[in-house]
Amino acid sequence: MSVATAFAINPGVSLRSADELELRLREIGATRYHNLHPFHGLLHGGKLNKGQVQAWALNRYYYQSTIPIKDAVVISRFRDRDIRMEWRHRIEDHDGNVGSEGGIERWLKLTEGLGLDSAYVESAEGILPATRFAVDAYVHFVRDRTPLEAIASSLTELFAPNLHEERISGMLAHYDFVNPEIMSYFKRRLEQAPRDANFALKYVREHATTPAEREAVCNALIFKTNVLWVQLDALYHAYVSGHIPPGAFVPEAS
Fold first, then answer.
1. What are the beta bridge partners of residue 100?
2. pLDDT tens-digit series, residues 32-89
3. Domain residue spans in the chain?
C-alpha cells in the first residue's frame, strides 16, 4: 500500500510504531505544508508583480540566514559526537566554506537579481514583524524543547523538493526578471534537502520509542509548518491585501 493510499484510508493514523509515526508525519506535510498557501499559488503562477516578488525574497532571506544559527543551536543540544558531525554540514550548506558558495550567498544572488540592495537585505531592516517573530520563535524552539523535537522540527525538508521544482519552473516561465542563475539556491536544495530529511526521519523513527515521544515529534513538525505558514500569511496581508506595516519594505510603484 502506498503512503498516499494509507492517508486516504486512514487519515487518523495512530502512533504505536515507527511506521505509524512516519505515516502521521507525511499526513501533516500533505495537509499543512506551506506549498498549499495561496501566496505560493500567486508566486509560482506569475500573478505577482516585481515588487511583491522582491518582498517575498527580502523576508525569506531572514529565514534563510537564520537557519545556520538554528542548526548551531541544534548541535549544542547533543553530546553525541556522531550526531554533531552529521548535523554540521547543514551549517556549511548555508554559510558556505573556504572556496565554496553557500545557500546564503545564493539567496543574495536572488535578491540582487531582483534589484534589491544586498546591504539592505542583510540588515533585515525592512522585513515584516511577523517574519522576525516567526523565525526567532524557531530558534527558541530548538533551544528550549527536547533534542528529539529539535531534530523533528526540521522534517519539513521531506516536502521541500517538490515545492522547489514547482518554484523553479513556475518563476522561470512567468517572470521576465527571473533567470536560471538567480534561481541557483533552489536547484542546489533539490540535492541537499532529501539527504537532510532522510537523516532526520531515520533519527526520529529510531529515537521516538513511546507514543508520547512520537506525538511530540508530530507536534514539532506542526510547529514548523506554522512557522512557515505564518510568514506567508504576513506577506499576503502586507503585499497582496495592501496592509504594509510601518517600517517594512515598500516596493516601488510599478
1. 97
2. 999 999 999 999 999 999 999 999 999 999 999 999 999 999 999 999 999 999 999 9
3. 18-240
Length of the chain: 254
Classify burial at 52, counting beta carbons within 10 Å of its beta carbon; exposed 0-12, middle 13-18, buried 19 or more. Answer: buried
Cβ within 8 Å of residue 128, ≥6 positions away: 59, 231, 234, 235, 238, 245, 248
Q: Choose among 200, 85, 73: nearest CA to 142.
A: 73
Tell which residue, 132, 116, 67, has the closest CA to residue 95. Answer: 67
CATH of domain 18-240: 1.20.910.10
Report yes or no: 26 and 158 within 8 Å, Cβ to Cβ. Answer: yes
- CA dihedral (151, 156, 160, 162) positive or negative: positive
pTM of structure: 0.92
Phi-psi region of 223 (alpha: psi -120 to 50; beta: other; left: phi over 0): alpha
Distance CA 42, CA 157 (A): 22
Measured between alpha carbons, how far is 108 from 36 in angstroms, rounded to an integer? 26
Q: Are 183 and 168 in contact (CB under 8 A)?
A: yes
CA 41 vs. chain centroid, Å, equals: 16
Report the 10 Å Cβ neighbour count for 11.
Answer: 12
Cβ burial of 67 (10 Å; 0-12, 13-18, 19+) is: buried
